[in-house]
């Protein structure tokens, strides 16, 4: 996407004022707020000058629409892709299903004019190869659940963890594992939910992600997501902790058990050490759980 100079400041300002004024046609009881309009103009000015803006916005000023409308307008005028990062999935859903339609209507646009996609981390997508591999040795008590998974995937080509009607135990065996992915060498590559999703990301004008995926994208030196020209980091109070956390590997007893059962291990000492570590972690977790229960009883 190519960026073009923006020399129509006053015209764009008038356009933003008109867009926010028109929200009353789409939101019952909407009243234009001065703080919201000032917020939007600050966002527009920062985007136009390729700057950085840090705002602490109080509740009730309509900050999501306050940054979304100028962000969409900027992307359209300059023919660039933009992004939004949030801490919670709830806000991602709100932006996609509630705020984005309102912002597009205010700007006289439709979903076909401006496409948005919610981006998830790789492990949130189904791996077809792993799914078929599990199906070859499915326990009798998991057959019905496995059939539900097959039906779900047949109706949802971009099958994701958040929508799949299966247990975490089964998902741990069929979800995409970046370390086990064959990429283009996989016979299921063309139908892979993850790579189908990535293609949709490339066609989108707006990418909506959480801070964890943003951190992983930065850690990969920009390899996970398509290029974007500007980003709004909402719920920014948690982004620093998320980025720091992304640089630390975590593993509990369940993950350790799955790892040890994922394939043959040649080193007996490694097996013994991992088993000892798993038992120790289980012991620690039981102690922690008991400690929490005693605290709850003490508070009653």
What does this structure look like?
This protein has 300 residues and is mainly alpha-helical. The chain has three domains: 9-115 and 205-246, P-loop containing nucleotide triphosphate hydrolases (Rossmann fold, 3-Layer(aba) Sandwich); 123-191, no CATH class; 253-299. The protein contains twelve helices and four strands; from the N terminus they run H-H-H-E-H-E-H-H-H-H-E-H-E-H-H-H. It has a four-stranded parallel sheet. Helix 2 (34-48) runs parallel beside helix 3 (63-78), helix 9 packs across helix 10 (239-246) and helix 11 (253-261) packs antiparallel against helix 12. The protein starts with 8 loop residues before the first helix and ends with a helix. 23% of the residues are buried. The model is unreliable at 1-7 (pLDDT under 50).
């Amino acid at each position: 996407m190519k960026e073009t100079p923006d020399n129509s400041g006053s015209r764009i300002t008038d356009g933003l004022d008109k867009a926010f004024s028109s929200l009353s046609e789409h939101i019952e009881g909407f009243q234009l707020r001065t703080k919201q309009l000032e917020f939007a103009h600050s966002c527009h000015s920062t985007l136009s000058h390729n700057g950085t803006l840090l705002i602490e916005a109080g509740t009730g000023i309509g900050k999501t629409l306050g940054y979304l409308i100028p962000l969409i307008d900027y992307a359209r005028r300059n023919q660039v892709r933009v992004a939004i990062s949030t801490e919670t999935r709830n806000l991602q859903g709100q932006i996609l299903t509630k705020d984005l339609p309102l912002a597009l209507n205010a700007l006289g646009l439709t979903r076909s004019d401006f496409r948005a996609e919610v981006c998830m981390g790789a492990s949130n997508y189904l791996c077809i190869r792993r799914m078929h591999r599990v199906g070859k040795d499915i326990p009798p008590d998991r057959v019905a659940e496995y059939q539900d998974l097959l039906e779900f995937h047949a109706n949802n080509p971009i099958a994701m963890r958040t929508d799949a009607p299966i247990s975490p135990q089964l998902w741990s065996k069929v979800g995409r594992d970046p370390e086990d992915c064959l990429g283009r060498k996989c016979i299921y590559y063309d139908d892979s939910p993850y790579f189908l999703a990535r293609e949709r990301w490339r066609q989108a004008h707006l990418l909506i992600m959480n801070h964890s995926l943003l951190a992983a994208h930065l850690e990969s030196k920009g390899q996970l997501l398509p290029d974007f020209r500007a980003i709004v980091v909402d719920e920014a109070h948690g982004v620093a902790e998320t980025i720091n956390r992304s640089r630390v590997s975590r593993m509990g007893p369940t993950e350790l058990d799955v790892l040890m059962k994922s394939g043959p291990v040649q080193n007996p000492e490694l097996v013994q050490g991992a088993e000892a570590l798993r038992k120790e972690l289980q012991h620690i977790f039981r102690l922690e759980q008991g400690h929490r229960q005693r605290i709850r009883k003490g508070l009653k």
